[in-house]
Structure formats: structure tokens, C-alpha cells
Specification:
Layout: H1 9-19, H2 24-35, H3 48-66, H4 73-83, H5 96-110, H6 116-138, H7 150-161
The chain binds protoporphyrin IX containing FE.
Protein name: Globin
InterPro entries: Globin-like_sf (IPR009050), Globin/Proto (IPR012292), Mb-like_M (IPR044399)
Length: about 170
């Protein structure tokens, strides 16, 4: 099965289980910042309360994107632009491996239903978004939306509503 015919429903569910733990994204950043000495300087001026929410949504978009959904094209394109060499937060490609490894480590420790097979699926899906970011860095593409994507957008909106910030 290829990424474009697989909606990664198992990953949306796994991610939902991870997010029940409200420290999940915070722990990801702890692990990621410690994963490589080149990472912390990139976040020297970051407001982590905003950043945690941005990444929380970003991972949902990444799972949809890996599943071939065009409804997240705009969001994925914007994230790719932020991290491109001419973007606001250029990311050296060599660090993407650390990003994926950090995320997988925290998912595996947090999702009570994690299995080696599920973790391989996470690696596959996050590999898709990283490859898209790298390709975007090489050749930016405008990504128009079409009316046919409206019903998919409805589903996407409902999922994103569930990701609204919770009041502490
Ligand atoms: C090596 C990998 C990565 C590094 C070093 C990195 C680093 C950063 C930095 C420094 C920022 C800016 C924080 C600020 O505003 O001060 C940022 C923003 C962000 N990153 Fe990453 N990132 C990486 C990979 C990813 C991936 C794979 C995703 C998505 C799945 C992602 C999603 C986001 C989002 C959504 C934002 C917020 C963008 C905005 O404020 O408009 N990042 N990242």
C-alpha cells in the first residue's frame, strides 16, 4: 500500500491517544532539544506556548498529508516555507532525522497501544512530510484548492476544532 491510498487512520488514533497526555508536545520538545546540539540555538527566541500549539496542529496536518489528502496542501506549504532556506526558520536537512527520532521516541513512550508495527507506520508517515519540506525547499509550488476538496475540508475542520487550545 502506498501513502496516497492509505489514510493513516491508525496514526490519527495513536496521535489522539498521545494528546490525551497534555505534556506530550512539551516532552517532544525536551527530547528534540536534547537530541542534537545544533537544535537549541534555533529555538533561542521561541515562545513555546505558541510553538506547542503550532506543532500540535502541524503533526495532524502531517498525518493527513502522508495520507495523500490535498486539503492540507496550504498548511503543509506554509510550514515548508517557514523551514526552507529562505524562510523564517531555516532548518538544516540533517536535523530532520533527529526530529523524527524524537517524535517517535515520545509517541512510543506515551501511546499505550504502541507496537513496533505502529512505530514503523509513524516513521513512514513523518518521512513523507520531511521529504515534502525538502522538495519544497528546492522548488516552491503554488497549491490551488478546488471545490471538490470541500468535503474533505469539512472533515479536516472538525478534526482541527478538536485541537483547540485547552484552558489550563
Ligand atoms: C529538524 C526539524 C525541525 C526544526 C529544527 C524546526 C524548528 C523550528 C523553529 C526554530 C521554528 C520557529 C519557532 C519560532 O517561531 O521561534 C519552527 C516553527 C514551526 N515548525 Fe518546525 N522544525 C522542524 C521540523 C518541523 C516539522 C517536521 C514540522 C511539521 C510536522 C514542523 C512544524 C512547525 C510549525 C507548525 C511551526 C510554526 C510555524 C509558524 O509559527 O508559522 N517543524 N520550527
Amino acid at each position: 500500500m502506498t501513502a496516497s491510498t492509505d489514510d493513516y487512520a491508525d496514526l490519527h488514533q495513536s496521535y489522539g491517544r498521545c494528546l490525551r497526555d497534555r505534556d506530550f508536545i512539551g516532552r517532544f520538545y525536551e527530547v528534540f532539544l536534547a537530541s542534537n546540539p545544533d537544535v537549541p540555538p534555533l529555538f533561542a527566541h521561541t515562545d513555546f506556548s505558541k510553538q506547542r500549539m503550532a506543532l500540535r496542529k502541524g503533526i495532524t496536518m502531517a498525518i493527513f498529508h502522508a495520507g495523500g489528502s490535498r486539503v492540507v496542501d496550504r498548511g503543509i506549504g506554509e510550514m515548508g516555507a517557514v523551514h526552507a532556506r529562505d524562510g523564517r526558520c531555516p532548518v538544516p536537512a540533517a536535523l530532520y532525522g533527529d526530529w523524527i527520532a524524537s517524535l517517535l521516541e515520545v509517541v512510543e513512550a506515551t501511546d499505550p497501544e504502541a507496537t513496533p508495527e505502529l512505530m514503523a507506520r509513524w516513521r513512514e508517515a513523518m518521512g513523507v512530510v520531511v521529504e515534502t519540506f525538502k522538495a519544497r525547499d528546492a522548488a516552491p509550488l503554488p497549491l490551488p484548492q478546488t471545490p471538490a476538496q470541500d468535503s474533505a475540508r469539512g472533515l479536516f475542520s472538525r478534526v482541527m476544532q478538536g485541537l483547540r487550545p485547552q484552558q489550563a
